[in-house]
């Protein structure tokens, strides 16, 4: 049996490299909450929340891998992002351990994407896009 993957086993790229990967067939998996995603997101992204906000605090989505497996293949080339890179890194580890073969984390998350001028919603102030997607402990 293969050794379990950890955060240091995940390949991470900056947002400009990520944008290039999307032009070569990578699929963008946004693991932010539905509310964050609905405010603004990378074009053509899939949204499957890695965590939910509850009255008890943040909880991991127990159906995360099941949902991913129902919409994506283990051979797909995935670029995973969240708000700042924390949730997406954890999601990448889970995906690798579940047998997904081509998983890349987007460093800095959607906040970095917005800061770099890559957001499609250029008519909205960047602060509005980022404030709406904050998910801090």
Structure overview:
By secondary structure, the chain is α/β, with parallel strands linked by helices. Helices cover about 35% and strands about 20% of the residues. The chain is built from six helices and seven strands; from the N terminus they run E-H-E-H-E-E-E-H-E-H-E-H-H. The chain has helices at about 15-20, 35-40, 65-70, 85-95, 110-115, 125-130, and strands at about 10-15, 25-30, 45, 50-55, 55-60, 75-80, 100-105. A five-stranded parallel beta sheet has the order 1-7-6-2-3. A two-stranded antiparallel sheet has the order 4-5. Helix 2 (about 35-40) links the parallel strand 2 and strand 3. The chain is globular and about 45 Å long. The termini are far apart. Mean pLDDT is about 90; it is low at about 130-135.
Index terms:
globular, two-stranded antiparallel ribbon, single chain, five-stranded parallel beta sheet, alpha/beta, 34% helix, 7 strands, 137 residues
Helix content bin: 25-40%
Taking the sheet with the most strands, its summary is: 5 strands, parallel
Strand order of the largest sheet: 1-7-6-2-3
**Inertia-based shape:** globular
Distance linking N and C termini: 34 Å
> Structural class, judged by helices and strands?
alpha/beta
Mean pLDDT comes to 89
Q: How many H/I helices? A: 6
Q: Beta fraction of the residues?
A: 15-25%
Radius of gyration: 14 Å
Order of helices and strands: EHEHEEEHEHEHH
Model regions low in confidence, pLDDT < 50 over at least 5 residues: 131-137
List how many beta strands DSSP finds: 7
